[in-house]
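ok so I'm stuck.
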Amino acid sequence: MKDYASQILIAPAELRGLLGTPGLQLIDCRPTEAYVTGHLPGAVHADLYGLNLCDSDPAPLKAFLWMIAYLFGIKGIDQAQNIVLYDETTDWRVARTWWLLDYFGHDRARILNGGVRAWTAAGLPLSGEPVAPVRTVFSPRPRPDRLASYDEVLARIGQPGTRVVDARSRLEYLGQDVQAARGGAIPGAVWIDYLQNLDEQGAFKPAAALESIYEGSGVRREAEVITYCQGGYRGAHSYLALRLLGYPRVRNYIGAWKEWGDRLELPIDVSPKAT
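replied:
not stuck anymore, here's the structure
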């Protein structure tokens, strides 16, 4: 099996050896207060949390993606750079930013596995000096097969070649923690909490452990897999886990449960089984 994880994840020691390399851009995806307290030397701050889309019809989706591409340019990101993204651990902020870059066709984006926690645990330094980004023009090359809208999810419900993965908490999946007009799950979705992707240190588990989780839940490599959560962040994390395993057809449902639960015409499962 091709080692997809090594193409996406980077360990602290490897990244330390690359610091200062021309064309390398570090992106800190954490909240502002965390960046100010201390960040990797040379890193630019870019926290996209809160920039959500709850209407995946064509017009709002196009506007949202244009805005994200524009922000990438403001933060100094372009297609020619080698990008390393990081979070406090390998959590959903960094996963969603990586997924957006992947959707936009950026093939040189990697993630610091374990984040700042792993970096400092390795005895590597942080910096308190802010870094101003050098604005660029980010030129997206969209890959529509990496993203799902509500109508695409709806069309695939019950299709034998598709598996829908719910990355939310158990109570959200069961409809007991309601964060939209309705609680419940997309019909037929299998529940795999995104936290199962991570070890106790907040780094991604080895491929064999991830494979056991997803294959063991009936998410087969030959299927088209659609991930979702509440706002597209945890779904992006599960998307990333499947990409690490080399699953060839994975989409993240960008509107997520907030859109699905609010669209009263869409079907829901109010009594799914969570193992």
